[in-house]
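Practice problem: predict the structure.
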Amino acid sequence: MKDLKRDSIDYGKSKIEPLFHSIFFPTLLSMVFASLFTVADGIFVGQGVGSDALAAINIVAPLFLMTTGIALMFGVGVSVVASIHLSHGNNKAANINVTQAFEVDSLLMTVFAIIIYCWRIPFLRLLGCSDALLPLAQQYLLPILPGCVFIIIQTIGTFVIRLDGSPKFAASLEIFPGLLNIFLDWLFVFPMQMGIAGSAIASTLSCAIASLMVGWYMFYHTQTVRLRRIKLSRTSFYLTARNIGYMARSGFSSMLGELAMSMMLLTGNYVFISNLGEDGVAAFSVACYLYPIVFMVNNSVAQSAQPIISFNYGAGNSKRVRQAFMLSLRTALICGILALAVLTLGAKPLIGLFLYAGTKPYEIATAGLPLFATSAIFFALNVAIIGYYQAIEQNARATVYMLLRGLFFLIPSFVLMPMLISPQGMWLAVPASECLTLAVILLTKKKTNL
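Answer:
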C-alpha cells in the first residue's frame, strides 16, 4: 500500500525525462481507462440497444463534456496555483486553494444538475434532439445527472493527488472505476436488459466509487496537500471568491478544450442530422466515441508536464521549464502520429465495435472516419502548446487558442466545408479547425517565449 500511495518525486531537482515519464505513464494509463469506459458505453449500447440509442447518447454527450470541462478548469487551475505556492514553501495557501476547489465546484455542479432536471425537455431540444430520439435521450439523461457531481470530485482529486506525489494512486482513480463501469455496462445492458438507462446508471455508480476513493485519500493518506476547514465569515467568502476566480482563469482554457469537444458534438449533430438524418448522427457518434481517446492521450501529455513546468516556473528555473515543454511536444507528436495510423488503418474493425456491418450508419462512418482522423496530429500539438501556456500562467494566450479551435474556426468549418465538398466536408471540419489553429500558433510564436 505504501508504494501505491506515494512515489518519490522532486519537481525541482529530479532529471526532467525520468520525472516526466514517472508521471506520464500512470497518467496515460488512467486517461486511457477514462476514455475506454466511455467507449464501453458506446459498444454495449450499440450492440445491445441499437444505433438510435447511440445517436441519443451523442445528443446528451455535450453535457458530460461540459461537466468534465468545469472539473478540468478547477483541477488544472488549482494544480497550477498550488504548485506555485508549494514551490515558494507556502503549503497553507496551497491547502486552502485545494479545499476551495473541491467545495465550490461540487456545489456549482449540484445546482447545475438540479436546473437541468427541472428543464430537461427544453435542454435536450437545445442540444438538437429530434422527436424520434427524445424518449431515449431522457432515459439516458436522468440517471447520468448525479454522476456529473461525482465526476467533479473525481477529476479535481486526480490533479490534487498527482500534485501530492502519488501519480499511481491518481491513475487508479480512473483504472478501477473504468473496469467497474465496463462490467456494469455489460451487466445492466445485456443480462438485466435495462437498455440505455442501464448504461447511464453504470457510469454514475463508477464515478461515485472514484469519488469515495478521493475522499479516502484526502482524509487519511495525504502527504503535503491537505483539506482545511473554511471559515464562514465575510472575509473568508471574499477570499474564496478571489481564489476561485484566479483558479478559474488559470484553468479556463482547459475547460474550453472540453467545451470545444461539446461544440464539435453539438454543431456536428446539427449538421449530420440535417444532411443525413438519424443515421448520420449514429455514424458521427462513432467518431465522437473514439475522439475522446485521442483527447485523453494528448491531455495526459499536457497534464504530466504541467506540474513540472509550473513548479519550476514558480522557482524561476527557465531551463527546466523549456526542457519539460520540448519533451511534452515530442511526446505529443508521437501520440498524434500513432492516433492517425490507428484510426485510419483500423477504421472498419473499430466502427464494427459500435455498428453492424452493412447498415447505413456503418457505411457512412466507414467513409468518414479516416477523413476525421487527419485532425489527430494537429490536435496533439495544439493541446501540448496550450498546456504549456497554462502552466506558465499565460492564460489569455491559452484561452485565445482554445477559442480559435473550439469556436471561431470550428463552427465556420462545419458550415463551409460541406458546401465546398459534400459529404466529405462534414468529416473534414474538425481537421480544418485544428490545422488553422496550429497555423496561428506557429505564426505568432516569435512574439512569445515558445
